[in-house]
Specification:
Layout lengths: L6 H6 L1 H34 L1 H4 L2 E2 L2 E2 H47 L4
Antiparallel strand pairs: 1-2
């Protein structure tokens, strides 16, 4: 027996909407931070190569800025994983459970 999921019903369920409501602000924040830092790096490399070539702590500012980007990526990844474990995953499981229950009810004959 084929068990089809009504994806439109899943998208409109309160559980799924709560997941999206809680996840999207975090993703927006993380994206904006990453774009600002990376965009600043690119603009400085293009418009101010002399600044990027300045020596700071025994290395060039450009190299130091590159290390900051790597560190920032790790931090954002860590924050996302922590939030996913604590907030998003329980919401995902609840939404999946509700969707599975709705699908199994639809597949059963009335009576």
């Amino acid at each position: 027996m084929e068990n089809k999921v009504d994806w439109q019903a899943v998208e409109q369920s309160p559980e799924f909407r709560e997941l999206i409501k809680r996840r999207n602000p975090f993703l927006l924040w993380a994206t904006v931070v990453w774009v600002v830092v990376f965009g600043t790096y690119l603009l400085m490399a293009a418009l101010s190569p002399e600044t990027m070539g300045e020596r700071v702590l025994g290395m060039t500012f450009g190299f130091l800025f590159s290390l900051v980007q790597v560190f920032m990526t790790w931090v954002i990844t860590f924050l996302y994983l922590r939030k996913a474990d604590r907030v998003f995953e329980p919401l995902e499981q609840r939404a999946a459970r509700v969707a599975a229950e709705a699908s199994s009810r639809k597949g059963k004959p009335a009576g």
